[in-house]
């Protein structure tokens, strides 16, 4: 049979198949679907109030004067900057924030190092040290007000009995002690958050590094600065950033314990914002001050963001 007599099967022309949607694209769509309700909630609860505050900072808004309306330009910002209480409140905010964050980090790091040691009962100590953090701010503030009361406070009585004080002292009523006292209470309540975070980072440090350094003759202090601290850098940076923001905008502790007094000695910017809006009823000035505070927080955030980004690029 000749080769030309062989039947050649007819091959149908294949249709181009639809390109399947890449898996990554499908996962992104699914993720966007799940995130949509949360994004909508954040838009309503966060984005809209921020826009509203920014808008009101350029308008005359007074809760008791309906004639105070219209575009104010920069008048609200001038009102804030011309207020004699602004600079002292700004200084108090810086002192309150710096001392609180520094004290919380130092105490948190010291307690984390202690709890990382292989001693008996450390599980109990790790549980007990969290107690100040879980106490609500209002309850903690009221308890410390009772402990520090000059008439019946137990701490004043102890310090007098031990000879530390000649007479009970009004710690929250003194011009030179009110802000420092509230700062101390804030450090007491907040340092366990540092302890937990730093302890987790400490336990993640490879023991082989410490053992090798010890064999090379490195002492405890040198191992701490050469091995331990570098491993804590990222978590420390994040903790400090978060608590700078949290502390600078904190309203509860100071309001519960001193309400910014005595004579504005412990007044911070959040207290000033509240008093402008709720006591002076000048919502425009309060919004302007809030906008200035938000600008500062945004600056801190971008510094943190670019620092982390630069570190990741190295």
TrEMBL record:
Domain called ABC transmembrane type-1: residue spans: 90-302
Gene Ontology BP term (one): transmembrane transport
Keywords annotated in UniProt: Cell membrane, Membrane, Transmembrane, Transmembrane helix, Transport
InterPro entries: MetI-like (IPR000515), MetI-like_sf (IPR035906)
TM regions (residue ranges): 30-51, 94-116, 123-146, 178-203, 224-249, 285-307
CDD domains in the record: TM_PBP2
Bilayer disposition of the protein: Multi-pass membrane protein
PROSITE patterns assigned: ABC_TM1
Subcellular location: Cell membrane
Any single Gene Ontology cellular-component annotation: plasma membrane
Family: Belongs to the binding-protein-dependent transport system permease family.
Protein name (Swiss-Prot/TrEMBL): Sugar ABC transporter permease
